[in-house]
Amino acid sequence: GPVPVYSPFLWLQGGKGPTNLKDCKVPVHIGLEDTDKNLQQVRNMVGVSDQMFHLWKMNTMTDTSLRLRFLVSRQVELAISGMFPKAQVLPFGSAINGFGSCSSDQDMILVLDNHKKEEVDSRLVFQAKGAVYGGERAQVQRYCEEVASIIQSFLPGCQDVQKILNARVPLIKYSHQLAGLECDLSMSSSSGLHMSCLLHLWGDMDWRVRPLVATVRRWAKCNGLVKEVRPTHFFTNFTLTMLVVCYLQQVHSMLPSLTTLVDKSTSTDTYLCEDGVNIQFLHNISGQKEQLNHCFSSTISLSDLFQGFLTFYSTYSFHTQALCPISGSSKPKNRSWRNSSALDLVNPLEPDLNVSYNVNTRAVEKFQKKCEQDIEKLEMLKLAEQEGECVKEGLFWLLEGKTDHGQKKHKFAFPRIQEIGLNKVKQNEMERLFEIQEPEPEPPQPKVRFDEKKPKPSTGRGEVGGRKNKPGAGVSKVHVQDLFPVKEEKSSKKPSVRVQDLFPGKENKSNKKHSVDQNEEERVEELKAKYLRSKETPPFTYKL
User: Fold this and answer.
1) If I label 429, which of 105, 294, 374, 494 is the partner at 20 to 30 A Cα–Cα?
2) 246, 255 contact by CB (below 8 A)
3) What pLDDT does 538 receive?
4) In angstroms, rounded to a whole number, what is the distance separating the alpha carbons of residues 86 and 74?
5) What Å distances lie between residue 193 and 264, 335, 488, CA to CA?
6) Residues 6+ apart with CB under 8 A from 423
């Protein structure tokens, strides 16, 4: 039978009852119905700004999805509440900061004892088990290991539990099949929870921030700047969100710097995390948005903000500058910083950390190249809107990387000699190297008659063709070349180009080698003649 562990999730078990559920009066709605229909409606919109807003609105996290995430956190909290009655499992990340969607991962933090210890004079306390040997990190790793075993063995719907204990922040990864979520549970620090609060504050500062972040994320994913594999040397959603924050701070002053928020904070805005990180910034911005946001009354459109984002980072000097959301500006890059990388972006809550430490030079170059390419496409869409023309699919033509259908794809072809300039640069050299000397015309030879007598050539042996000439013979000697003059002319027209003419160095080497071999042969002959035989004896041939 099943493990007798109950959870907040209800399940319909099999039975003999009717399977017809048409009469069920309980509606089930998570806000994802008619997704394809809504996407097609967004594609048919004319303005790029309208497409950006409605595309974000269509994919933003619904209230049902948000409640489901708190229910997943509550399941873990109830499972360990017997041993840890004051434990809390708090969601953070995309589920809290307002930049996520229904398909975002679930990030959670487990706080075992959130009760602040008060100094008391009494010695009577509850007995507790001693800490694990090895320090605080070893204790957190041990806790993660035990909690992971509980999740794997007893919690319904939780599968594929992985323990990543050697990471900077030890965490537990698992899949929740009932909720359809990928969950990450950590225990060491609550700074991520406060970072979610800061991002939520920046997102509420202006209605255009979240649609812009959603568009940048989608654009980066369509262009291969975001990879699903972890760890990765490319961008993450958190890095892209911080890039948008720094851009809006430096160019439009739409978002306040952390320093400004710290100056306006009170004593109630101060928190101390478990790992010693001091958190202090203004949390309640109601009534102060107009002071903190200099674009509060501006009419700048989403398409202009997106084009400005691409323009700003296409020419940004990542080699010499570092992005700092604490001051809201850029500062000179510090090469001696131990967390410096191809892209330096200071973590606002933990300045010693680099948000984009994992990003390498290849990813940065690809990012800037894509920015340069898509600036022109956005300009084309903007001009088409001004002239009243309709560009098919508008923003999706940019996001999905479609090319003009009228253009033909270029085929691979080898370049011609005229295109690369070899015929101009080395023409004289090539002519001199392959210069062909025409052979001088030979004097015409008299026609040969078989009845004529020719004087016998002096061969020294009295033989012609290997036979002895008989006296009085009336037939003259005939050469085969004389019978076929045409072939001789064709053969004479062949270019007299030798391999040695093309490679004079090899000929010199062969001549040197031949002379060396000849000298060595003479030296050996002299030694043999001196020590082996007399000079009257015939020498024998010797080759090296």
Assistant:
1) 494
2) no
3) 59
4) 13
5) 21, 30, 97
6) 417
Cα angle 206, 209, 212; round to 5? 150
pLDDT tops 50 at residue 50: yes
- In eight-state DSSP terms, residue 471 is T
509-518, pLDDT tens digit by residue?
555 556 667 7
DSSP 250: I
Q: Phi, psi (5° rounding) for residue 278?
A: -95, 120
Which residue is listed with tokens 């940019």?
Answer: 398
Looking at residue 21, the DSSP 8-state letter turns out to be: -
Strand, coil or helix: 393: coil
**Cα Rg, the chain, nearest whole Å:** 44
Token readout for 58 is: 């269509």
Neighbours of 7 (CB within 10 A): 19
Please check the confidence at residue 126 and state whether its pLDDT lies above 80: no
Q: Where are the alpha helices (DSSP H) in 155-301?
A: 191-204, 209-222, 237-247, 258-263, 289-292
pLDDT in tens, 290-328: 999 999 999 999 999 999 999 999 999 999 999 999 999
Contact call for residues 220 and 240 (beta carbons, < 8 A): yes
Q: How far is CA 61 from CA 57, 67, 249, 310, in A?
A: 9, 10, 26, 26
Q: CB atoms < 10 A from the CB of 477, how many?
A: 12
Per the listing, tokens 């690809």 go with 366
Q: At what angle do helices 48-59 and 361-386 cross, to 10 degrees?
A: 120
> Hey, which residues does 463 pair with through a beta bridge?
468
Q: Which two tokens stand for residue 337?
A: 């910083």
Q: Where do the DSSP E strands lie in 94-147?
A: 106-111
Residues 489 and 465: beta-carbon distance below 8 Å: no
Which position has the token pair 């100056």?
263
- C-alpha 34/C-alpha 134 separation (Å) is 54
At residue 151, the pLDDT reads 94
Q: Taking the CB of residue 385, how many other CB atoms lie within 10 A of it? A: 18
- Return the structure tokens found at 204: 């509420």
**Residue type for position 394:** G
State the distance between the two ends of the chain, measured CA to CA, in whole angstroms.
92
Strands 171-176 and 463-464: unpaired
Q: How far apart are CA 407 and CA 409, in angstroms?
A: 7
Rounded (10°) angle between helices 237-247 and 191-204: 50
187 and 140 in contact (C-beta within 8 Å)? yes
The answer to whether 241 and 99 have CB atoms below 8 angstroms apart is: yes
Residue 65 near residue 29 (C-beta atoms within 8 A): no
SS (H, E, C) 205-245: CCCCHHHHHHHHHHHHHHCCCECCCCCCCCECHHHHHHHHH
Whether 283 and 266 have beta carbons less than 8 Å apart is answered as: no
